[in-house]
Write a structure and sequence with these properties.
Layout: H1 15-21, H2 24-27, H3 31-47, H4 53-71, H5 84-96, H6 109-144, E1 150-155, E2 158-164, H7 165-190, E3 192-193, H8 209-215, E4 220-221, H9 225-230, H10 233-260, E5 267-268, H11 287-311, H12 324-347, E6 350-351, H13 353-361, H14 367-376, H15 381-398, H16 407-413, H17 421-425, H18 427-432, H19 442-462
Parallel strand pairs: 3-4
Antiparallel strand pairs: 1-2, 5-6
Helix pairs in contact: 3-4, 3-6, 3-8, 4-5, 6-7, 6-12, 6-19, 7-10, 7-19, 10-11, 10-12, 11-12, 14-15
The structure holds arginine.
């Protein structure tokens, strides 16, 4: 069938070229935004006397009917349509006749697609923001149960210093909180309507872009019509924020996978979030966490695809830009799927406190505290550091831990050692003494939890 834009040509494409050109298979996702955008546009056209109120009403009713039919499964997207915009317009004309042909006055597909995509991503970002809040909440709840759970903190994946499991978890809460704020921030720049930019230069009609923007929940309109149709920064920015979410999820996943191994055994995932092996009967694999880690690459790829697609484009619209959607849709959907599984997985994760403690008892992770003990009694830190290093070396040789050396032995090394050293280097004390702001001490951890509660309460009110 000839295209609606036939005229300059007969509008009949080579079959393969037609399929190649078509974007309906993926941009059909934006049907709702496309229809709502068109309703708002037609109402503005009437308000501004560009079309009659009667026509606007017919158009709005026709469009509402199309929306209903799609939502109720009564109308299928035609795979032959060029894109969602043409599909909806063709349907409208089919249903209400020539009046439907007035809808596209003072508009172009270029500003229409830019509008639809912004609206669609705004809607999706709400889901992501709310999933992030859920994740922060379950992390906070797990943390609240583990303020006194001692585990080894690591650097270089070597046991370093004792920390509470709560403190470790709360590090992730901070990452996801920043991720959340990045999306909030993104919305401020994205929430401007490009509609009315038309093909690139604006229009000769006396339109009211702000009226449409307001009706669709935008804060205002884009300032330059060429930029309005050429800009895909909002896709890049969103994908960059999504990439960071995936980075954080991936690091967390990696730790959960390690912690679930027999070598660590710090946590056990609920059966509902693990899989077995088809051959090894003993296996309980953390596939969900592995998949999240694995899917991180896709989202980075989506970001790269978007940046690369844009880099050489002259202003204004070029068909290359049709490639924006699959990348940004994939990024959004991947993050949504990952978060949807990740939140309950963390929520139901069992913490094996005894195993964490016994790992903390090995590895001399209280050595810094022993050096601090001497330093607080007047020995320069570097000297204390060296002495304790030598004590550790001796312990390694004798296969004992610092807490097992008798005081008489300690006294031979330095007179500054007294009975109280044992209390000072006990693991619980090592954690409790880390009173500095943002440290692993229980007061700091409780404050972090309380601050998160306030944050969650304020933000949840928004959703
Ligand atoms: N399907 C197109 C896209 O996604 C819509 C815009 C088409 N504009 C045009 N001038 N051909 O980019």
């Amino acid at each position: 069938m000839a295209k609606m834009w036939a005229g300059r040509t007969d509008g009949i494409l080579n079959k393969d070229a037609d399929d190649f050109n078509s974007s309906i298979s993926f941009d059909k996702k934006m049907y709702k935004q496309d229809i709502l955008g068109s309703i708002a546009h037609s109402q503005m056209l009437a308000q501004k006397n560009i079309i009659s109120f009667d026509d606007a009403e017919k158009i709005a009713n026709g469009l509402a009917g199309i929306l209903d039919d799609i939502q109720n499964g009564k109308l299928d997207f035609s795979p032959d349509a060029e894109d969602i915009h043409m599909f909806v317009e063709e349907q409208l004309i089919k249903r209400i006749g020539d009046v439907g042909k007035k809808l596209h006055t003072a508009r172009s597909r270029n500003d229409q697609v830019a509008l639809d995509l912004r609206m669609y991503l705004k809607d999706e970002s709400k889901k992501i923001s709310s999933l992030l809040l859920n994740l922060i909440e379950v992390i906070k709840n797990q943390a609240a149960k583990n303020i006194y759970t001692v585990m080894p903190g690591y650097t270089h994946l070597q046991r370093a210093q004792p920390i509470s499991f709560a403190h470790h978890l709360l590090a992730y809460a901070q990452m996801f909180k920043r991720d959340y704020s990045r999306i909030t921030d993104w919305k401020k720049r994205t929430n401007l309507s490009p509609l009315g930019s038309c093909a690139l230069a604006g229009t000769t009609y006396d339109t009211d872009r702000n009226m449409v923007a307001k009706a669709l929940g935008f804060d205002g309109v884009t300032a330059n019509s060429i930029d309005g149709v050429s800009d895909r920064d909002f896709c890049v920015e969103l994908l960059s924020a999504l990439s960071l979410i995936m980075t954080h999820l991936s690091r967390f996943s990696e730790e959960i996978i390690l912690w679930s191994s027999w070598e660590f055994k710090f946590v056990e995932l609920d059966d509902a979030f693990t899989t077995g092996s088809s051959i090894m009967p003993q296996k309980k694999n953390s596939d969900m966490a592995e998949l999240v880690r694995g899917k991180t690459g896709r989202v980075y790829g989506d970001l790269m695809a978007m940046l690369t697609m844009l880099k050489g484009l002259p202003l204004a619209y070029n068909k290359d830009m049709q490639e924006d959607k699959e990348a940004v849709f994939d990024g959004v959907e991947t993050v949504e799927k990952c978060l949807t599984v990740f939140v309950p997985m963390v929520d139901t994760m069992k913490v094996l406190k005894d195993n964490m403690l016994s790992a903390a008892q090995k590895g001399f992770i209280n050595a810094t505290d022993l050096a601090d003990y001497l330093t607080k009694k007047g020995m320069p830190f570097r000297t204390a550091y060296k002495i304790v290093g030598q004590i550790v070396a001796k312990c390694v040789k004798e296969n004992i831990i610092l807490d097992e050396i008798p005081l008489s032995e300690y006294k031979k090394i330095s007179d500054l050692f007294e009975q109280d050293l044992y209390g000072e280097i006990s693991l619980a004390a090592c954690v409790e003494k880390r009173i500095s702001e943002g440290g692993t001490g229980p007061k700091s951890v409780e404050k972090q939890i309380a601050d998160l509660e306030v944050f969650l309460k304020n933000e949840k009110d928004i959703y």
